[in-house]
């Protein structure tokens, strides 16, 4: 029973235990990060609804955006507002949106679980640091393929809106773009993407950088595959030449062509690429 005088037993002093910050704070940081992503998505959706109601007349198909800041703002708005899918053509150097800023929006979309598919031209991959960023994107879930050429730059958000840059000469040297809303034109742009996607070669990450799958007409010849099979079996060049009844120089030439085709610096890398590409 409690002491009628009001003097109960003294409570034991509070005791604290030291916990690693990674354990104590990580769940809080994850929760705050997810809340921020939800807020960004909600903000983009509300802004888009406002723009559609106030600035986009009913029945209009195309919205023209002029100016570097305006084009960049609209680009990020469409990319960050995507909830299901992003489709993109990448050609050459960015003109209105810095690549670093585009990478941030890309990471945000991948973190939200948006399906992100990209078709890029070879000249786009020539930019400084692009290979590193593409490797990081592939690791995060980005699907990217390589095409010899593309007819235009483009981004499609949730198959509801597309953004296509215009020639800077048409706007007095300022970057400009059109935003295409749901229409037959948008459907045609989506079909154009799917056609180019089907014909492009997949890119994948390797120990030496990003590589493209070989084109159908760029596969090794039968003679090269014979050399490759014996080489991977551990047979020396001299014995390969003897078994195939060719000269050692021919074996070396075929091996070099295989390594050039795979972009490999060693026979070990060539073997890995051959397995990855399904040559044997």
Plain-language structure description:
There is one protein chain. The chain is an alpha+beta fold. It is built from 10 helices and 9 strands. It has a 9-stranded mixed beta sheet, sandwiched between helices. The longest helix has 29 residues. It is flat and about 85 Å long.
Low-confidence stretches: none
**How far apart are the first and last residues' alpha carbons, in Å?**
85 Å
Q: Determine Rg (CA atoms, Å).
A: 28 Å
Strand order of the largest sheet: 1-7-6-5-2-3-4-8-9
Write the layout of secondary structure elements.
Elements: H1 21-24, H2 26-54, E1 62-66, H3 68-81, E2 85-90, H4 99-111, E3 115-121, H5 130-140, E4 143-147, E5 154-157, E6 161-165, E7 176-181, H6 184-199, E8 201-206, E9 209-212, H7 222-232, H8 237-244, H9 248-262, H10 267-277
Parallel strand pairs: 2-3, 3-4
Antiparallel strand pairs: 1-7, 2-5, 4-8, 5-6, 6-7, 8-9
Helix pairs in contact: 2-3, 7-8, 7-9, 8-9
Question: Which labels suit this protein?
Answer:
47% helix, alpha+beta, 10 helices, nine-stranded mixed beta sheet, 280 residues, flat
Write a concise synopsis of the structure shown.
The chain has 10 helices and 9 strands. The protein is an alpha+beta fold and 280 residues long.
């Amino acid at each position: 029973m409690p002491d009628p005088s009001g003097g109960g037993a003294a409570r034991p002093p509070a005791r604290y235990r030291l916990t690693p910050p990674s354990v104590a704070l990580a769940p809080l940081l994850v929760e705050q990060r997810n809340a921020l992503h939800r807020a960004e998505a909600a903000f983009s959706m509300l802004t888009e609804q406002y723009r559609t109601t106030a600035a986009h007349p009913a029945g209009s198909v195309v919205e023209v955006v002029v100016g570097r800041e305006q084009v960049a703002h609209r680009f990020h708005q469409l990319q960050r507002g995507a909830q299901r899918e992003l489709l993109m053509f990448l050609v050459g150097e960015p003109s209105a949106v810095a690549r670093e800023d585009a990478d941030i929006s890309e990471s945000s979309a991948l973190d939200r679980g948006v399906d992100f598919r990209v078709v890029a031209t070879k000249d786009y991959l020539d930019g400084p640091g692009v290979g590193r960023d593409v490797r990081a994107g592939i690791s995060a879930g980005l699907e990217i393929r390589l095409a010899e050429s593309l007819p235009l730059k483009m981004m499609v958000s949730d198959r509801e809106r597309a953004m296509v840059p215009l020639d800077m000469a048409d706007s007095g040297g300022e970057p400009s773009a059109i935003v295409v809303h749901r229409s037959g034109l948008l459907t045609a742009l989506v079909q154009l993407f799917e056609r180019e996607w089907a014909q492009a070669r997949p890119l994948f990450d390797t120990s030496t950088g990003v590589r493209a799958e070989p084109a159908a007409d760029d596969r090794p010849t039968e003679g090269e595959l014979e050399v490759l099979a014996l080489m991977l079996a551990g047979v020396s060049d001299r014995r390969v030449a003897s078994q195939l009844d060719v000269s050692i120089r021919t074996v070396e030439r075929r091996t070099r062509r295989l390594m050039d085709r795979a972009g490999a610096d060693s026979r070990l890398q060539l073997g890995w690429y051959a397995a990855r590409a399904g040559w044997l």
